[in-house]
Amino acid sequence: MAGTKVIQLEQIGHPKRARVAQSLSPRPTVIRVEHVSKRYGGGSVMAVDGVSFSVDKGEILALLGPSGCGKTTTLRLIAGFEVPDCGRIEIGGRMVAHDNIFLPPEQRGVGMVFQSYALFPHLTVLENVAFGLRQWSGEQQRNRIAEALDLVGLAKLEGRYPHELSGGQQQRVALARALAPSPQVVLLDEPFSNLDADMRAQMREDVRSILRQAGTTAIFVTHDQEEAFVIADQVGVLNHGRLEQLDHPEAIYHTPASRFVAQFVGSADFIPGLVQGDRITTELGILPNQRGLAGGQAVEVMIRPDDIDLIPDQAGKAIVLTRQFRGADNLYCVRLPSGQKIHSSQDSTRIIEPGAVVVVKANPTHVVCFDINGVAQ
User: Fold this and answer.
1) What residues in the chain have per-residue pLDDT under 70?
2) Cα angle at 154 between 151 and 160, to 5 degrees?
3) Which domain holds residue 209?
4) What is the separation, in whole angstroms, between the first and last Cα of the chain?
5) 3-class SS at 316?
6) pLDDT value of position 118
7) pTM greater than 0.85 (yes/no)
8) Total domain count for the chain?
9) Which of 263, 296, 316 is the C-terminal boundary of a domain?
10) Where does the ABC transporter domain start and stop, copy by copy (predicted)?
């Protein structure tokens, strides 16, 4: 494939998969955030704590984390709705926040899609999209509105009012309005939170496709890890205002940098282990010391439910406590002889009744360990 490089994912345990990475010719950086912090409550609440990252042209970044982790505040700092206490923010190579420099939102070349969409109820679809184009000439404005509505698939609904649209259509209008002025960056704040489950899944694909077609650089915030993985090129996981890890979705899931990231981006159990040479001894058996950890080190080994097989056997020493049918699979909770509980994901047609005695086998494709402070080793 000309001009691109292919990264084999055997680095993280998936030799049969490959992902096309960024072009060999580096793309220009559009957003640069360096050591940005923000406090509230007279300085008592640290909302954003020394966050740094950059986003290249055409890239989509997801800021992921629980409520109160600082992701929306970070977005508002980039948009210009909040003033950072320290640090610097650049957009398109231009300083927009640093020391005595602070450009207001309208001067930053940023489009914003709010969680509530913030459409004007008394304006039609066309008039909502035109709102950010008031400085454009008549013909230029009409052409750009037509392009934006065609891009989001609403060309035939330009005369409707917001209350006459579905939630998904309202979101498309908000996105068209943000894209119409051709901003350098589009920021999306929990864009799918007001939609039902089926609509959310569809809109994830649609919004990603629209942003790709427009070649737009975008940042969106979400607490939904599946949402982040589906849409984003890069995912940044925030915890108490700090950026714990920034990486490709596959790396975030398979090689989390901390125990917090491991737990937040997917179900995970942690079992004690002792490093002994080229192996790690655990209650689930011997696992390979793939990272060359120092011997004698006590660690916690991350085990995901799909790493665990269950074999009904009266000679086993583990007991199935519960089964949760989840449609595509069954999630089992199993008690080990030590009393520790772990989880196993099995095919939906494979039913093991609670109370059954089983042999537990761990088959992790790669072994991720954490020290007593929850830092990946």
Assistant:
1) 1-25
2) 150
3) 26-109+183-263
4) 35
5) coil
6) 86
7) yes
8) 2
9) 263
10) 31-265
